[in-house]
């Protein structure tokens, strides 16, 4: 029963557009009302009606340690006692910058901001300033925050530039953005052949999580590195999700690729609002006040947010954590595969470390078009039934499920049993 959630939602609709402060929370894609939460404990969320769920949203990625981790909460508490914001430097910002730099070698200098959106927006401005060029390549199904120039639909035909995906964005702002299919070598090659000298940067989620999890094909990221170098364009890895999730040096560490710029967010703020962009010193030195590219923030490097980020990274960088995450995530993947086999269901699972998506399609999912073959009606029923089993999944087919270090064998076993029960009922 979710009586109080329903009451709050009714009230919220009168004061907040759609009743939520970020669209996906509305649960429209799964034909449900949003659940209002009261608190989180490790792998669990507890709603305002007292229902308990195993959580695979984990605040959309930041909570890799689980909810209310004592080290993180303690750091927030001690930091907040010293004051909430100074609008002046603190030594903790230096510590967080150093922690990140030491973990991700391609980052020689880094600037903290307040969200992933700010990070990608600023990285693109910087790439344009550095190259003196205007055009950007992004990939269909990759999401880089609600930056005007990146909210594009593919234009018709390869040679056409993106058209705005939302009212309120003038065509002039998206007309420099090319939206290409992910994993499509020849589309990228053609774009560079035609516009090579005008392309400032390629921005990519190296392991996309925003169309559901999709893996880069063998050599695709290496190819992006080579072709951007050839045409003197920058390669921007948007590791807002994958940074510190795929491993201590993100997806770039896993694939051994050094992008020119990297965007971070989510985990580096430990559940508080933090983003960052960083990369080669020569490029970052263009950022104000060292250089002419303006970018600023009243609350950037906020001491409480930075404290949560430092505590999270310190826990994560202890020996054995990524091995444990891999072990438990692999157990979940294997369990789902066994269920699918037993029930003779052809659905697809894509997993990269502790991010995973079960796609309701029999087609291999390797780009946005193949992800779109998923049966979203079926996913909606699956989501609702899983909720009744006490499992809170991301309320959309096209999202990653996140496993945290507080998910144990017990939670994974319960999840797999629930998936078996629900899928059996549905088919
Ligand atoms: N980049 C990626 C890869 C993301 O997943 C997101 C958010 N989900 C963003 C950028 C934007 O981050 P934020 O919501 O913090 O603005």
UniProtKB/TrEMBL annotation:
Chief location: cytoplasm
Molecular function per GO: glutamate-1-semialdehyde 2,1-aminomutase activity; pyridoxal phosphate binding; transaminase activity
Pfam families in alphabetical order: Aminotran_3
Keyword flag Isomerase: yes
Cofactor(s) recorded in Swiss-Prot or TrEMBL: pyridoxal 5'-phosphate
SUPFAM superfamilies cross-referenced by the UniProt entry: PLP-dependent transferases (SSF53383)
Catalytic reactions on record: (S)-4-amino-5-oxopentanoate = 5-aminolevulinate
Localization, UniProt: Cytoplasm
Domain of life: Bacteria
Recorded metabolic or biological pathway in which this protein acts: Porphyrin-containing compound metabolism; protoporphyrin-IX biosynthesis; 5-aminolevulinate from L-glutamyl-tRNA(Glu): step 2/2
Subunit structure: Homodimer.
Family affiliation: Belongs to the class-III pyridoxal-phosphate-dependent aminotransferase family. HemL subfamily.
Protein name as annotated: Glutamate-1-semialdehyde 2,1-aminomutase
Organism: Thermodesulfobacterium geofontis (strain OPF15)
